[in-house]
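Entry 14. Structure prediction run on the chain below.
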Amino acid sequence: MPRRLRPTFTSLGLGASLLLAATGPLLPPVFSGAALAQQSGGAAAGSLSVDEARAAARRILDAVQRGDANARYAQFSDELKAMTSPSMVQATMRSQPKVLRYELLSVRSGLGSSTVEAELTTTAGKRVIFIVLNGRGQISRYYVDRADDPTSRVAGQFVQALSTGNFITAQSFLSPQFQKEVTPASLQAKWLNLQRLTGNFVAVGRVVEAESTPDARLVLVNMRFTRLSDNLFVILNPENQVVGIDFPQDAAPAPAR
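Output returned:
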């Protein structure tokens, strides 16, 4: 039997009490949010030039378009490589719409990183993606414009990525500011620690948008484990980027009735 819901959006105080929450101010909407560091007239020290960033992005997107999982894995930073494998990358690529073509829209260089904005045309339609590159031209993180998607679906997809061990994909649902604070490794640690209390993950149940304000939306994702069922609280900003996650804090099996 699912456990009783904890207090909802109003009493959560917009995520102030969340175990994982963005502590800094939210960035502007996603299209201007690609500026992840202070901007200068050219490439900053330790970051790529505009031409180098464009070339690196083309290599990455060409690999995605070809469905080349080995090349895609090699293009991750060392930190991300530690969180995945070529076979996991291949499984993820097979589950996503095929990329038919792409167009690079902009390149912005900051302190030690560059962000490339690209529009992908896929078998499921068009999607804008932002790829953050380190000084070696490798992917350090990325995020996708999901502003027009249903909020409950975005939250459900985020939890699905968590539950299947795709922590790099899960991080891509976070806001750019939140990504700086919450790495794929920290998401993995939280998920594994949760299952020590709840038992192994079984399935995602109902996904319900519980409450909404002009600045944020609270979605409850019911999750079933071998020992109990509980709700994961996911808070998203108006651009449908995850800015807060509340993992169950009092996970314990309900007594027999």
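The first helix runs from residue 9 to 12.
Filed with the rest of this week's runs.
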